[in-house]
């Protein structure tokens, strides 16, 4: 049983966590965050003490570190507040009747700190379905949810994944192939990343190098021409993590009956000018109507059901070699602020993790 004031001897008196020290001006930089020492957290009766081993650096933090847009599922992180996000850790102390024991690996949402106190209801016990526990921190379930529910894939579809080199995109393209897509196209801002995406099975990759809007109309026209060359007959399914001119061009190139899922707005979240609170998107309503396009936003509703279906399939695909888990690991909590800045600058490929 966890008893307040009775931490195990293995837990130090002070531990570290990452806090917001100033609002980002534009895309987040390492100096917006600080690693601070605090007293070790003590679980109240019925709570679980977890020592974190890995946590995910996710793009949505760019919005949460600023003024949160309306209807955001999470509130803004206040200056002085500790960041949070998906994490995998090891149980240190658990109450009787929780079904947890010291040493168990669990996932939860209190990352960005060395130790976390979590209610049992906020934990999921890792059951060994994944060969690498850190793989639990992928965003693969998001792509799987889009392809099986929000914008259901049909055999032979031409699929476009924008922002394909990110945590969602690197797995979504592979998943689309495994689910029967005919052609899978991706977008990225880097020729080097394009080469890596082709190694993952993308049939073609459109390189749309970031310019922070300096040549907006010309850049949009170049991208639209690239898409027309790569998919002269149009696309059937869009999984969009970027927004902006990439999403607009994709919707303009959609075939009759095409499906589109809007998952993220990276072009706005990581803009140098700091537009994370808004993500305008221009649609030709007439074409949406006459083509019968289905455009949906991917929300977290039903995500637990999606993840329960995704995890065993992901584990089987990993073990068979049918899929890979592209990711980078920053070593140590002190590297977390830099990892966020580098992700915002587009330096990483795949999921970004911090390993403690």
TrEMBL record:
Superkingdom per UniProt: Bacteria
Alphabetical list of Pfam families matching this protein: ADH_N_2, ADH_zinc_N
Xref: InterPro entries: ADH-like_C, ADH_N_2, ER, GroES-like_sf, NAD(P)-bd_dom_sf, Quin_OxRdtase/zeta-crystal_CS, Zn-ADH-like_protein
Chain ranges of the Enoyl reductase (ER) domain: 30-354
Protein name in UniProt: NADP-dependent oxidoreductase
Lineage: Bacteria, Bacillati, Actinomycetota, Actinomycetes, Kitasatosporales
């Amino acid at each position: 049983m966890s008893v307040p004031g009775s931490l195990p001897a293995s837990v130090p008196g002070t531990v570290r966590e990452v806090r917001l020290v100033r609002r980002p001006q534009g895309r987040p930089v390492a100096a917006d965050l600080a690693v601070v020492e605090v007293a070790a957290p003590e679980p109240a009766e019925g709570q679980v003490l977890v020592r974190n081993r890995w946590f995910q650096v996710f793009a949505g933090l760019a919005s949460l570190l600023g003024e949160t847009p309306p209807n955001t599922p999470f509130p803004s992180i206040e200056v002085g507040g500790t960041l949070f996000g998906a994490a995998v850790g090891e149980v240190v102390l658990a109450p009787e009747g929780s079904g947890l024991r010291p040493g168990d690996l669990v996932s939860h949402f209190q990352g960005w700190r060395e130790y976390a106190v979590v209610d049992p209801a906020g934990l999921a016990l890792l059951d060994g379905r994944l060969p690498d526990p850190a793989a639990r921190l992928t965003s693969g379930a998001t792509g799987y949810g889009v392809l099986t529910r929000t914008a259901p894939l049909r055999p032979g579809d031409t699929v476009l994944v924008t922002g394909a080199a990110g945590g969602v995109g690197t797995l979504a393209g592979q998943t689309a192939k495994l689910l029967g897509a005919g052609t899978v196209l991706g977008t990225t801002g880097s020729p080097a990343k394009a080469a890596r995406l082709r190694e993952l099975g993308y049939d073609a990759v459109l390189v749309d190098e970031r310019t922070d809007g300096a040549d907006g109309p010309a850049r949009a026209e170049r991208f639209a021409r690239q898409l027309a060359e790569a998919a002269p007959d149009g696309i059937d399914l869009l999984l969009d993590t970027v927004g902006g001119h990439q999403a607009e061009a994709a919707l303009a190139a959609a075939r009759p009956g095409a499906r589109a899922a809007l998952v993220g707005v990276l072009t706005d979240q990581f803009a140098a000018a700091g537009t994370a609170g808004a993500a305008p998107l221009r649609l030709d309503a007439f074409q949406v109507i006459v083509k019968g396009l289905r455009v949906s936003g991917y929300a977290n509703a039903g995500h637990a059901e999606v993840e329960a279906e995704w995890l065993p399939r992901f584990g089987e695909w990993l073990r068979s070699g049918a899929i890979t888990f592209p990711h980078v690991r920053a070593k140590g909590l002190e590297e977390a602020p830099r990892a966020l800045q580098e992700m915002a600058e587009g330096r990483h490929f795949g999921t970004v993790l911090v390993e403690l």
